[in-house]
Amino acid sequence: MANSFGTDILVQAPDPKAAAAFYVEQLGFTITGDTPEMMSLHGKNINLFIERGPSVGPVLEVTVENVEKAKARLMGNGCEVVKDEPEFPRYYVKDPFGLIYNLTK
């Protein structure tokens, strides 16, 4: 089970453009993508994505060999899916300790 954390962090905001402006002005991120539903920002060591919507908290990216198997294993060990988008496929999983991560391949 060789999984790894990615360099992406995702947050949600009612106004992604306003949130992006904050991170650009206050933390020196650079805007690399701009759509009505998501702003993409890149920094020296991490990438920040701001999607429109109510906050579920910061979402870290975890790369796994098989998304469905990882999801099933985690669900069997006390995790809950807080967002399910099988068309990507991606799942936001909250573990028993409060950490939320996006399972991706």
In short:
The chain has helices spanning 16-27, 67-75; strands at residues 4-13, 30-34, 38-42, 47-52, 59-63, 80-85, 90-94, 100-104. The protein is an alpha+beta fold and 105 residues long. The longest helix is centred in the first third of the chain and has 12 residues, at 16-27.
Secondary-structure topology with pairs:
Blueprint: E1 4-13, H1 16-27, E2 30-34, E3 38-42, E4 47-52, E5 59-63, H2 67-75, E6 80-85, E7 90-94, E8 100-104
Parallel strand pairs: 1-4, 5-8
Antiparallel strand pairs: 1-5, 2-3, 3-4, 6-7, 7-8
In words, what does this structure look like?
With 105 residues, the chain is an alpha+beta fold. Helix content is 20%, strand content 45%. It has 2 helices and 8 strands, in the order βαββββαβββ. It has an 8-stranded mixed β-sheet, with helices on one face. Strand 7 and strand 8 form a beta hairpin. The protein is elongated and about 40 Å long. The two termini are 13 Å apart. The relative contact order is 0.22.
